Amino acid sequence: MSLPALPDRQTPLKVLIVKLSSLGDVVHTMPAVMDIQAMFPNAQIDWVVERGFAPLATRCSAVNRVIPCEIRRWRKAFLKTEARAQTRTEWQAFKADLQQEAYDVILDLQGLTKSALVVWLARKAKGGKRYALANRTDGSGYERPTRWVADVAVPVTPHIHAVARGRVLCAKALSYDVPAHLNYGLGLATAQRRPLVALVHGTSRADKEWPVDHWLEIGSRLKQHGFDVALPHGNETEHLRSIALAEKLPGAVVWPRLSLDQLTTEMAQCTGVIGVDSGLSHMAVALGLPHVQIYNFDTAWRTGPQGLVHQCSVVGTPTPPVEAVWQAWQTSLAAQGAMP
After folding, report:
1. Shared domain check, 89 and 23
2. CATH of the domain at 300
3. What stretches of the chain show up as alpha helix (H) in DSSP?
């Protein structure tokens, strides 16, 4: 593949990232954004993302401007006659916001029809290029319009971690080697953490859940070792489960329904996180916290923590046993030097 030559790395470069959702995918995109800034220190990097995830994208230190959209909602609302006029107005406002700048580099890191539409609408600067994935990767969605819209389709090895996929695409598009250092750009982890461990039991898929009695056992062990337990939740089902767990774990705190911005701040103050494969668990990784991520089937190679002793995945069928998760937690904690 022959890619066009790029300007000197000190030249100001306007870059648009298109990664709309979901929470975990947004987190996994942050290292790619930070890589671009490291390679092109004078780059202006803007990011189009679903409004619900905009607070997290805003906290990524390399991002200049976040352009929120609500494509999920607009698509549903447009089918309702009474909401159609308002939806058109909001869509036009989004287009105006998107097209304020003309970009030298437009990167579709999603690979779906909705992201391809945004990439197509975005304005290119003179000589600018649109880049996108040339192929599907294992376990990830891919739709043909992403390639039709791209000026340059970038091939990526199919068996690749979600974080590496974005980093490799950007590196190939912008002609640099992927940096060895992995940086999410949040910078919120603090040495003055509270003796509090968040148990992330909620996930969007039932087959990713861990049994309630396992959570109770882990919570009890944490209490015996001097930790308090926090129970976040994202919907009513998770809220009820948090309440049920707290009733059997003396001193456990059910966090109120927090905004994503507030939740990020609260998690950053925890000693660590134990959680299932979910967006909140991926946030724990980005925050640099001691973390154990629980998998009922082996997709940890694609989305789990990478290469850090204080962050690890535990895989088991039908679910990992409590002892395996506890031993992983002890190892993670010791590696971070975070024993209370």
Report:
1. yes
2. 3.40.50.2000
3. 23-39, 54-59, 71-77, 81-98, 113-121, 145-149, 162-174, 212-224, 236-248, 260-268, 279-286, 300-303, 322-336
Per-residue pLDDT of the chain (340 residues; tens, 9 = 90+): 444 555 667 778 999 999 999 999 999 999 999 999 999 999 999 999 999 999 999 999 999 999 999 999 998 887 887 888 999 999 999 999 999 999 999 999 999 999 999 999 999 999 999 999 999 999 999 999 999 999 999 999 999 999 999 999 999 999 999 999 999 999 865 556 889 999 999 999 999 999 999 999 999 999 999 999 999 999 999 999 999 999 999 999 999 999 999 999 999 999 999 999 999 999 999 999 999 999 999 999 999 998 788 999 999 999 999 999 999 999 999 997 754 4
Q: Measuring CA to CA, how many Å separate 137 from each of 256, 289, 305, 330?
A: 37, 28, 19, 34
- Total of domains in the chain: 2
Q: Which of 34, 235, 300, 24 is nearest to 141 (CA)?
A: 24
- Same domain assignment for residues 252 and 156: no
The answer to the question of residue 148 being in a domain is: yes
60 with 166, same domain: the answer is: yes
Answer whether residue 179 is part of any domain: no
Asked whether residue 26 falls in the same domain as residue 156, the answer is yes
Q: Cβ atoms within 10 A of the Cβ of 113, count?
A: 14
| Distance, CA of 173 to CA of 80 (rounded, Å) | 40
